Amino acid sequence: MANLKITLVKSTNKARAKEKATVRALGLKKIGQSVEKADNEAMRGMATTVRNYVTVEEV
User: Fold this and answer.
1) Residues 10-56 pLDDT 10s
2) Which terminus of the chain, N or C, has less C-beta within 10 A?
């Protein structure tokens, strides 16, 4: 199964609380940090929720 590489590229300082919580749930803390997550509907939905703050690549 493929993985998704999710990278935080923008600060969440002025983001809504729900968006901040989603970024934290993805495991991202600092700008430029990347995580690899399983490619499933839940992860794609989370990435879509915070699409203004992250980039997503298939690995």
Assistant:
1) 999 999 999 999 999 999 999 999 999 999 999 999 999 999 999 99
2) N
Q: What angle do CA 45, 1, 58 make, to 5 degrees?
A: 55
Cβ burial of 25 (10 Å; 0-12, 13-18, 19+) is exposed
The verdict on pTM exceeding 0.90 is yes
Among positive and negative, which fits the CA dihedral 9, 32, 23, 6? Answer: positive
Residue with tokens 């203004």: 52
Domains of the chain (ranges; CATH) run: 3-58 (3.30.1390.20)
